[in-house]
Amino acid sequence: MLKLKRGMGVADARAMHPSVEIVEADPEADRRLLEGLADWCDRYTPLVALDGTDGLFLDITGCSHLFGGEEALVANMLRRFSEQGLEASAAVAATAGTAWAVARFRGNFVVPDGEEAGWLMPLPLAALRLDATICTALDSVGLRTIEAVMTTPRAPLVRRFGKALVLRLDQALGQIDEALSPRMPVPELSAERALAEPVMMVEDIERIILLLATALQEALERRGAGALGLRLFLFRVDGAVTRLSVHLSRPARAPDRMAKLFHERLAALGDSLDTGCGFDLVRLAVESVAPLAAQQVDLGHADRDDDADLALFVDRVCARLGRNAVRRPVPVASHLPERSVAFSSFANAAKIVETALPARAERPMRLLRQPEHVEVVAEVPEGPPLQFRWRRAHYRIARVEGPERISPEWWLESLPPVEKKDGETDPDHEKRRKQAAALKTTRSVRDYFHVEDTDGRRYWLYRQGSYGNADAPPRWFLHGIFA
Amino acid sequence: MATNAVAQKAIFALRREISRIEGTLPERFAEPGSEDAVVLRHNGRPRGEASLLITGVPALDEALGGGISKAALTEIHGQHSRDAGAVTGFTLSLISLLLKQAPSKPVLWIGTSGFFAEAGLPYAHGLSRLFGIMPQGVLFAEAPRPVDALWIAEEAAGLKTLATVVIEISGNPQRLDLTATRRLHRRAAEAGRPVFLLRQSAQAEATAAPLRFAVTPAPAGKRHILGRPLAGSIGPPAFIIALDKNRLAPSARFVLEWNADERTFETRDALRHGRPQDPVALVPLPRHRPDMAAAAGPRMAYGLFRFPPAARQPS
């Protein structure tokens, strides 16, 4: 044994073992490793919670029979951990507190139901997940084991050491429920396939996805539901887990549809999918569902559901290029050009009630995302522009229509703050705030001009602000392009 | 007589074969009104007026052999990126004509993020005001690279649900070669629905599209108020259309004006000579009502007058 202890100084350690290798602590990397292990533990149960910096809680209720019982599950897990080069200890108990205590202070055991108290009694108080201060305080009055605490009257304990002690004890004994907060939402449904021989080819993965989707189809049909969000878990042999999500714009349960979406998702990943030594477990989980009634198939008509084709196409594009790849413009009640059109995803657009566009004055056919600053020469200060320079090119203006004044939406904006002078009464302050707001509004008033240059290109220019303010001269912007 | 019939059959078979290989333009072989006028079929569908997008300008339709083929890829070029307005405007006018026949189908507009950032997205209010294209009828697909945009276009070109697919690519990316355009053209031909390839600020390259327009902006006409042109005003949008590649006729140039109220093309001459009434409302347009274009019924007689002869009308 090296006889090194936690909290020991580096110099002391060096004095004892001159050849000791010092590695700086990296809590961030430790955390990542723990999260990676938590991902990997998903193969045993979907309910995995992190426990501090060095432990994991797994809720294996109803999962253990899949691995041949609790003992077999623990043995399987510990074997795989040791294959990955990790030393771990695990315990199974009816309560999280007991399992924690047994795993850390006794070793790899399965505590039978109802025997928690017997297992806990000989353990030190630290096994109750208590703060160090409470432990020391209890230690100072001679309470060193859990048994001692359990046999002491409770009321004085609570009064002297706080509720935490009794709470932890009750949680460990199962008298108070302890909720674990799993890292990920529990999927509605999931299907998985453990593979004797790890797969590496994307084609093989896609084939397995199709099998899993077929397995899910029946369960979805029984519920009368269709999948809206799907997630694929690829468990690599060496412990890394890849998660891929796809979203559907309308509920579906056809396996080929799901497989097509994952095909695009995998194609988008391309070489960035690190297959390593292969995946030995593939899981397909349904993250969200929506009701989907069974549809009568008409034998007489071979024509297909066109809308479904379009939805599938949009979903495929979105699976490959990101969820915002396909969007639909939605008119918004605002007279500011850039605010009057919002974009919504294809899936959401179906829910939006369309409002008829009000007839407006001339509007450009393409609107720039951001109005671009242009240098303008105008004949008279408040008059129309004569020539302008945009993107280093010079345009001479032949004809102008306008201006059309568009004011900012002052009713949506809050009053700007104004410094408070000493000895000033409140109404005065409010008045000055309103004046400042009015000034801000006049500064951001836009005068739009529809201009045509000598070559016949038509643009939408605007002047922001007005002449006369020495501190804020007006600025010109190009906002849109006309046909 | 019998030999004549056999010969005719052989000739028709050959014509069909040629039109199949070329993918377009079977009507070139059948002079309208002549004795051996035949209905050629393309992929089992009779090819006729229904498969053509009629521009409504007689001279242009004549040069195009009746109209723009709907089952084909059509390239529309702009020389500079600052001509994006004219290119987009002309394309949207064609789409507006197309949507007159199938108003409920959506339009898919594909572009690269780079070009959308450069020239902006088509603006819903401008689309509805000028071209009668409602926001719910448009879908925008934004791709990070031209390759992805081409992939979306290829996938979308086979969808019959869409009214048309527009793919906007700027510059001359290497992937947009003869093979890529041929794939788009084939898919468009199979779906029987036009695909417009907008080449912004691009040099003309070899393409499989049977038709290539080059669009440059033209100074707009004047606004007509009370039947008279208003000096200094900017009227309806105008474009100079050059037929760069066309198998039927030598390259030609047209100056077209888009009439947003009627949703028709007009030539400058027609505008200059007979404009019976002013299409612009003198009172403010009614709000929360359908677009003006739908309500303008009585003007149809005037529109028919300038349409191609009755023989060419879709039956």
Rounded mean pLDDT of chain A is 85
Characterize the largest beta sheet of chain A: strand count, sense, and whether it forms a barrel.
6 strands, antiparallel, barrel
Tally of individual helices of chain A:
14
Computed over alpha carbons, the radius of gyration of chain B is 20 Å
Q: What is the subunit organization of this protein?
A: heterodimer
Assign the CATH class of the largest domain in chain B.
Alpha Beta
Helix content of chain A: 25-40%
Low-confidence stretches of chain A: none
Largest beta sheet of chain B, briefly? Answer: 9 strands, mixed
Please compute the radius of gyration of chain A using only Cα atoms. Answer: 34 Å
- What is the strand tally of chain B? 16
First and last CA, distance of chain A: 83 Å
Instruction: Write down the overall geometry of chain A.
Output: extended
Description:
The complex is a heterodimer of chains A (483) and B (315). By secondary structure, chain A is α+β, with helices and mostly antiparallel strands. Chain A has three domains: 142 residues, no CATH class; 126 residues, Dna Ligase, domain 1, CATH 3.30.1490; 116 residues, no CATH class. Helix content of chain A is 33%, strand content 25%. Chain A contains 14 helices and 14 strands. In chain A, helix 10 packs antiparallel against helix 11. Chain A is extended. The mean pLDDT of chain A is 85. With 315 residues, chain B is of the alpha/beta class. Chain B is built from ten helices and 16 strands. In chain B, helix 6 runs parallel beside helix 7. The radius of gyration of chain B is 20 Å and the shape is globular. The two termini of chain B are 32 Å apart. The chains are: A alpha+beta (483), B alpha/beta (315). At the A-B interface, helix 12, strand 7, strand 9 and strand 11 of A face helix 3, helix 4, strand 7, helix 5 and strand 8 of B.
List the defining traits of the structure above.
heterodimer; A: 483 residues; alpha+beta; Dna Ligase, domain 1; six-stranded antiparallel barrel; four-stranded antiparallel β-sheet; 14 strands; 33% helix; B: 315 residues; alpha/beta; Rossmann fold; globular
